[in-house]
Every structure is written in structure tokens, then in C-alpha cells.
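Q: My collaborator sent me two sequences in one message, no labels, and asked for predicted structures for both. Can we handle them in order? The first one she listed is below.
A: Yes, handling them in the order given. First sequence, followed by its C-alpha cells:
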Amino acid sequence: MGAVSAGDRAGDGLAVVCARADRIRADLGNSALVDGVLGAARAGQGVEEALAALHEAILATGDALGVYGQATLRDVPGVSVAGIARVPTDAVHVCPTGSCSRYRWADEPGPVPVCEVSGRPLRRERLP
């Protein structure tokens, strides 16, 4: 699949699957479609077809967002206390292989997430 550019639909969809694989498997009641997306990514193949099938399966469960709607919501800020803005550090954890657009601010609590494709921890980078 290669490095992801900003706005890359497949990269954004893969980021959602990587970040929420366990939840999606539980919601669907099986893991075949999730495994299909991750398997294609691991093999360096295009994930577009597998993502489309997973997206449709998620929509069929009554989820109005599917994979691509969840990708859009990734960047919507969460609820915050009025007057107290969360200001991220200048570092972020990103996909270790550059295969998707997954990220997490480095100052968020908890362990560094692991890439579902490579099994490696997300890579820390400083923002320009």
C-alpha cells in the first residue's frame, strides 16, 4: 500500500480498522472481514476492496457511519470543560510503516498503541 497521503480514503479506513479492530470484531460477531483488511495490508496489497466489504457489513448492522464515517469522526474533538482547552504536545504517535493515517497525541495517557498490521508500537514523531 505504501505511505499514506493526507486525505487518503483507504489509509484513513485502515487507520480506523487498526485502532478499533477488537471492537469491530465484537460488533460484527466474527473477525473474517477485519482479518481480510489486515491481511491485505500485511501482504502489501491494496485494501480498498476489503475495506469496502467491511464498511458495508458495518452499515448492515445499523451503524450509520461504517468505516469511512468513523474515519471522518477521528478528528472531531471530544467533550471538554469550558475554558480549559486540551493543547497537545508537539509529538504524536503514528503508523510505524506509514501504511495508514492512524495517529495518537503522544501526551495521551496509557501505553503506546500497537499497529494491528505490523504488531509494532506506533512510532513517535515530532510535529514540524
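Q: And the one she listed second?
A: Here it is, processed independently of the first:
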Amino acid sequence: MRDKTSHSSPDIGARHPGALGWLLLAVAALGLSAAMALLLVAARTPGVATLLAGRIAFAEALVLHVNLSVLVWCLALAGLLWVWRRPAVGRLGDVPLGMAGGGALLMLLSPLVGGTTPVVLSNYVPVLDQSAFLVGLALFAAGMAAAAARFVVLAWPRRWPTTLGAVLDLGLCGVAISVLVAGAVLLLALAELPRGLPVAVYYERLFWGAGHVLQLAYAQLLGVVWLWLAAQGGGRWALPSSHVAGWLLAGWLPTLAAFVIAVALPVLAPRQAQAFTLLMVVGGWWLLLSALAIGLRGWRAVPLAARLTLALSLGLYLLGALLGSLIRGDTLLVPAHYHAVTGAVTLALMGGVYTLLPHLGGRRLATRLKTWQLGLYASGVALMALGLAWSGSHGGVRKTPGAPVDEMALAGMAMMGVGGMAAIAGVFGFVALLWLALGARRGVPAALPQPPDGKRG
């Protein structure tokens, strides 16, 4: 039987300054990735690209942009939510943050190391094939694995979740388990791959399985944030929390299957690559089906910024899924697909951060500022994805700025340039709003009041 207890005061526990540290790491990564994106958009925009030819390091900027905008941004915000739900105690609790932050900084500074740096544009995790970057990447990965393991140990459910807080913990446990499985898949590939492979093949196969598992982690993180946003104000899920927990547990199955695939199939076998791809598709559609199944009641009671985030994020995710179904070969349809999907994740995380700011000691931001920023970013990503898709459908190729294309493809790239600049402006607007909010911090407040224990519907 579904009771009528409100979702508006979840049991999110005591605050800890470490949460602010994870937030600052995430926002710094997103802002720096936007700076790199300026170079990338300029390098692909007709007219501007000709002026900049030979003056920017496109490949190095692409490596840093992808790793900062997806890997560091998304996982650092997962770290924020893990510490938010289970605050770190003592200095040792901040070690994972120090490792992750140090690793991200080393990756950022690695292009300054002297000498020519080989760039490998491998899928999911492109790299600079030099010691500084690889050590930084390993340190960041170790920090995230430590944070994930800590959360699983502390938040593992002892009974079936029936409250909002317990459901959020279960969802965040799923994210943490996916991060840990991604690390395990990476280590298995590292142990199995022969060292004599061409460098491009080596890194592609090294990160293929782990990269696909990380996509599952991002999908689970997106689902958790959607649930959180839908519970703001007077919002209520259409299903009781105990049923929502079942949907979240179903989302763990692709992650567990990924580990089986990594163990059972050789890393260089085509069957393994195909199995991971299929698994990611299944995991993505599980997220959409879950969103539809869970539903939302009391839509009008949800604050405007949270409603806008939910609607635009779901729209971008659907656009990305549609573009993904149209991919035929290695064209610009591929980045069109993943920019829409990762844009959906980033937009949801931005909206989620806005709801947490007052509880981190930041000032409340005006609704109109948040909605303008969210709308600008979402429209920019959508236009950029559509421009890339248009160009890709007319022969535009990936990872090769300046390649000859016809006029129709050029029109798509012009659209991409306008959308990309709008999306970048949206990111800078987000960073500026956080600076405004956190610049007036009043200190870390006490925990929110605990809600009565009961089933949530």
C-alpha cells in the first residue's frame, strides 16, 4: 500500500566539507573542458578553421576535452554524491579526493612536458602516450575506485529500500559498482594485451570494455539524478519506492554481464567488442524504460528549474538515442550521438548541483538565472548534435578537421559551430553561477531534518 509521505525532505545525512571539494574538482574540469572545446569548435567551423590552421593542437585539445568533460566531470560528481550520502570521517576520508584531483591536474599539465607527445584518439578514453598523462590517468582512476569502494562498504543496503534516501543509496551503489567493474575490466585487458601491438590498437582494445562499462555508470548516475530532481518540492514518483528499487537493481545486470564478458572472451576477440557494444545499447534503453515506468506525479509542484532540467535532459537523451540508431560507419554521426547523450547527463548533473547548493552553504540562485543557463546549454548541445549529424550524413568524417567535404556537410558544420558556441557559453554560465553562489558561502550548514520512516510513493 502506498502511503502519502512527501518526498520533499530526504534523509541525506550530515554534511562534510569533502563534498565541496568534489564539487570544485568537477566544476573546474567542466570549465577547463569548455575552454578546450572552444579550440575544437573553432577548428571545425568553416572560415574560422582556415584562419587557425596550424595554430592550435587539435588532437591534444580533443584528448583533454573528452577526459575532462566526461571522465573527470561525471565521476567527480558521483564522488560528491557518495560523500554527500556517506560523509568522510577524518583525514583518510579525503584521500580518494586528493588522489583523483592530483591525477586530473597531472593529466591537464602533461602536454607541457617537453618533446613530441604521441596522441592516441582511442574511443572513450583518448590518451597522450607519455608517462605524465598515463600516471595522472592511473592516479585519478585509483582515487575514484577508492571512493566507490568506500561508498559500497558504507551504504550497502541491509534491507529492501522503502524510503527516498534508501533508494538513492541503492542507485549510487549501482554507480559505484559499475565504476569498480570498469576498473576490473581495464585491469583484465591490461594483463592480457600483448605489448607488441600498434599503439592505436593497444589503447583502443585496452579501454574498449572499461569504456563501455563507464557508459553504464553514467546512465545509472543520470537515473539517480532524475529521481532526485523528480522528488524536489512536492514531486512524487508514480511508483512506490520499493518498486523503483527493483528497477534500479535491474540496471545492475548489464554491469554484471560486462564482467562475465571480460572474463569469458579474449580481449582481442571481435565477439568481445560486439558483446560490449550490445550491452551498452541494452543498458541505455533500460534507462529510458525505467524513466517511463517510474513516471512522475505532482509535476507542477516540482520547482521550475528541476522540471526544465528533467524535460530537456530526457529530450537530449532521446535525441542521442535516435542519432545512435542512424549510425552507419565512422562518420560525424558518432560524435553527434554521444554529444547528445553526454549532454543529457551533464545537463541533469547541472540541475542536480543547483538543488544541492543551498545545503553546501551556497546562496540560492534566482530561478530565471538557472533556467536561462540550462536552456542555453541544452539548445546549444541539440543544435551542435544536429549539425554534426547533418554533416555526417553527407560524408563528414570524425577526428579529421579540415577534411574536404561538400557544401551540405559544410552547412552542417556551420550549424555545429553555432550550437557548440552556445553550449560552451552555457557551461561558462554554469561555472559563473556557481562562483556567484559559493562566493557568498555562509559555512557548511547542519544536516537536513530526518523524514519519518515510511514507504514512498
